[in-house]
Amino acid sequence: MKEKEISNPCISPTDFAAVMAETGNTLRYMAECGSRGFDCSRKTLELLKNLGTRKKPETETLASIYADLENCRRCKLCTKRTKIVFGAGSPNARLIFVGEGPGYDEDLSGEPFVGKAGQLLTKIIKAMNLTREQVYICNIVKCRPPGNRNPEPDEIMTCIPFLKKQIAVIKPEFICALGKIAAQALLNSTQPISKIRGSFFDYQGIKLMPTFHPAFLLRNPAKKGDVWEDMKKIMREMGQKI
């Protein structure tokens, strides 16, 4: 008597790939939760029972970004810093000012732009009919480079993801990049600041205006007029009275 013929139990390559992909995702999830094998322990069984019910990640906030950055040891700048300088101002700001890195006074206080350059920036913001509390102020790197040197490429690469997260959370309409380091890092450019200042560029749908850094203006006061022209362009776009 012939054996009863049965249909081919094999699944298609497409279905097999989908099953394997889902299996891989499940195994990675279980590993992240602490499972180290299929020992049918109570912990493993509980994980299997709860598959598909994992919580969605919470929305990122400035506080959660700071918590991730706090006590950071990701680059060599951490060895000399006093305090991390995260940022300050309104979490709903329409305008963000981005500098290159903290200086001596900022390193001591943990607040951005509080030294002589910061005092000049405050005057610029006031002249724009705004206050520091209405804008947001931060830097490319969050720790002071020794001797106030320029941040190095590896330091920028390590720290700029936190700045990009800050920008993504605040969702400003405008960014003012203060100086060469900030402008080049955000625009992924090598153009000198003298060539790109005074023009708007697109940063992920946000209007970005590069201009001279306030510290540069302290050394070159004749350039203050150029910066004021740049600020007036931002004010016009923002609908601010000039």
Automatic annotation (TrEMBL):
Alphabetized UniProt keyword annotations: 4Fe-4S, DNA damage, DNA repair, Hydrolase, Iron, Iron-sulfur, Metal-binding
Protein name per UniProt: Type-4 uracil-DNA glycosylase
UniProt record similarity statement: Belongs to the uracil-DNA glycosylase (UDG) superfamily. Type 4 (UDGa) family.
Pfam families in the record: UDG
Every Uracil-DNA glycosylase-like domain range: 86-232
Keyword 4Fe-4S: yes
Recorded superkingdom: Bacteria
GO biological process: one example: DNA repair
PANTHER family recorded: TYPE-4 URACIL-DNA GLYCOSYLASE, TYPE-5 URACIL-DNA GLYCOSYLASE
Enzyme Commission number, as recorded: 3.2.2.27
NCBIfam families: UDG_fam4
Keyword Endoplasmic reticulum among record annotations: no
GO MF, one example: uracil DNA N-glycosylase activity
Stretch forming the signal peptide: none
Catalytic activity entry: Hydrolyzes single-stranded DNA or mismatched double-stranded DNA and polynucleotides, releasing free uracil
